[in-house]
Amino acid sequence: MEAINPRRLQPAVLARLLNSVGQGEVINERQLRRHRNRAGYTIGDARTVDLFRYAAWLTLEYFKPKEDPLSYDEVKRRQSERNADLVRAAQDIGELPAVVNPERRAAAEASFRVFCETYFPDVFYFAWSPDHLRVVEKIERAVRTGGLFAMAMPRGSGKTVLCQTAVVWAALTGATPFVCLIAASAERAKDLLENIMVWLETNPLLGEDFPEVCYPIRCLERITNRQKGQKHQGEPTRIEWTSDKIVLPTIAGSRASGVVISCSGMKGSDIRGQNNARPDGRVVRPQLVLVDDPQTTESAWSPSQSERREAILAGDVLGMAGPGKKIAGLMACTVIRPDDMADRMLDREKHPEWQGERTKMVYAFPSNEKLWARYTELRSDSLRNDGDGAEATEFYRENREAMDVGAVVAWPERFNEDELSAIQHAMNLKHDRGESAFFAEYQNEPVVEAQGEEMLSADEIACKVNGYQRGEVPLGASHLTMFIDVQQKALFWMAVAWEESFTGHIVDYGTWPEQKRAYFTLADVRATIARAVPGAGLEGQIFAALERLTAERLSATWRREDGAEMRIDRCLIDANWGQSTDVVYQFCRQSPFAAVLLPSHGKYVGASSIPFSEYKKKRGDRVGLHWRIPNTIGKRQVRHALIDTNYWKTFVHARLGVAMGDPGCLSLFGHDEETHRLLADHLTAEYRVRTLAHERTVDEWKLRATRPDNHWLDGLVGCAVAASIQGVSLAGVEGRMPSRPRLRLSQLQRGRV
């Protein structure tokens, strides 16, 4: 047995030694650890225990006089006192840190622009545009001297963050005792206020230069219970920190003491009655209001909602300061549609008090439209084939000097990393968002829209039955055309017989696979391509579906009224869907019906687009009535048709509007109008909007808000274009419904109507 030194025992050894005297377990390591902590170094060092000293200490502890145990009430009282001491210690935030850079703070207080650049360099990292500087100047004027200013700015121009920083600047400088931030909805307003709260809590430079505001806020640590009890040098700060209202801390000598920042949506009950009682007994009301995008898309399209919001702004908002007092304010907005709330508030004739001003993304568009048309084609082809548009960007790089001629943009620094200039960025937005949305949201010049009353309703179209049996070709027809609209779940097809006068007869239509229901939507089809072609990938499924459908329809004979047999002489297949484009081209190359088949691409040719008639015809190109078949050289090796869909949708609707029996009439097979109820809904799934641009009036077709299926409308358009390709023409008729001039909002405002 190894010798043991009783004056230097390891704790574990000491515990085993004491437990080995025959009295059972008299001590464990946990108890020994507590004894060592209580006795300190009197019974050993940091690693060992002196047995003799430990025994002496235990003896003294044993004979020490015992204190009377405390009663429950006394224990509770002492604990309450300790807790109160801790609370009092936590409530008082102590001395405030000193201002780190007084010169920097003074410069920022004197200029809103300097304030933005100094404390928010990560937000305002682009150079200011002239439009931004005017907005900054108007914000500063509204804060310092009052007045009302309305400014329409393009989407993404930073008007929201400018409003938010203006709130912070006005509050920190004590320029106003009460500032209110108003947005389209209460939820949106709270989101805006939340950003302001985060800035005050986390912005390091604000914390350095405005410690009398930021330090008490940061001491809260977002713990709600700390607000009421917070003190500075024994005096309550009276800070409030909620989702819809901030009251800055009351600190002696601080210009921001007790400044209120509230937020509200465009609802009268939320706006009315806002006030705050100050320690000196005064009751303050909002003196400055910053309105950020006060309307939603829904409210903009509702005249009643627009009028109500206009009334709230003119009544409740301007009355927030109280009886006999004026309120200062700035409204940053975007015009969504003509005569919406923003449009009316910007009109100096209707609301001169707001001194409205509109800014644009583009003040002058490039003059070389042909180069930009080529750019758009390259970009669309790239994106359609899962590219990133790099080919178009390279084309712009090579021709930039010529393509930029005539262009004037408001903010030259505004463009994405994969773009070369603000001009390219604007033209991309114009193409991607659509002309109507672009002119409204980025130009603040929405186009006056009017839906043609002469368009037939679904009921009227369903009634245009001609009495022929399904699949029967009328006597005068000389051409049969077909169109296939490719969708992932099913193929929608249509066959139309045409007379030389462009009188048309829809002889058959349907889906592949065939649906066994009279009424269905693409979203809820039960018989799908995937079920009909199991085990294949998406491309293989589409290829097989096209094979089976064309085998059924293109090999079939169609009997004319006089007994003559006819076949489909031209079939177009939609190749616009990116995932199916290559499949369609491959199928058209390999199909036994290759001589009849032609891939097609629908093109959105709007009022500001270059019409097909102005494209330079190259050798080998076929050009017809708003369609083109370019001479194709390259990997696809299949010619394809490009279709001006806006023109041809107007064309077929005009044919539907022609009376039965007149030349150019378009009718449906059968006797029962209920047969074509689903078809009629497809044909009326879109509406036309008359648009004027570049001295051209064009019908631009838009899908209705409910986003119904429109696949047989595309099918009818494709059949009509196929007939035109085969030589059918309309004599003496333009092929358009009578047009009424469609004017830009600016023209109306200048009194040119």
What is the count of distinct domains? 4
Q: What percentage of residues falls in helices of 4 or more residues?
A: 25-40%
Widest β-sheet, arrangement of strands = 22-23-24-21-20-15-16-17-25
Ranges where pLDDT stays below 50 over 5 or more residues in a row are 733-743
Continuous helix count: 28
Structural class: alpha/beta
Look up the CATH topology of the largest domain.
Nucleotidyltransferase, domain 5
Distance between the termini: 117 Å
| Radius of gyration, taken over Cα atoms and rounded to an integer in Å | 39 Å
CATH architecture of the largest domain: 2-Layer Sandwich
Mean pLDDT: 86
Strand runs, count:
27
CATH domain class of the largest domain = Alpha Beta
Approximately what portion of the residues adopt beta-strand conformation?
Answer: 15-25%
Major β-sheet, in short?
9 strands, mixed
Q: Shape, please?
A: elongated
Verbal overview:
The chain has 753 residues and is an alpha/beta fold. It folds into four domains: 11-63, no CATH class; 102-358, Rossmann fold, CATH 3.40.50; 362-441, no CATH class; 458-725, Nucleotidyltransferase, domain 5. 38% of the residues lie in helices and 16% in strands. The strands form seven sheets. A nine-stranded mixed β-sheet has the order 22-23-24-21-20-15-16-17-25, with helices on both faces. It has an eight-stranded mixed β-sheet with strand order 5-6-7-2-10-11-1-12. Strand 20 (570-574), helix 24 and strand 21 (597-603) form a beta-alpha-beta unit. Helix 7 (130-145) packs parallel to helix 8 (159-172), helix 8 (159-172) packs across helix 9 (186-202) and helix 19 (422-433) packs across helix 20. The longest helix has 20 residues, at 72-91. 38% of the residues are buried.
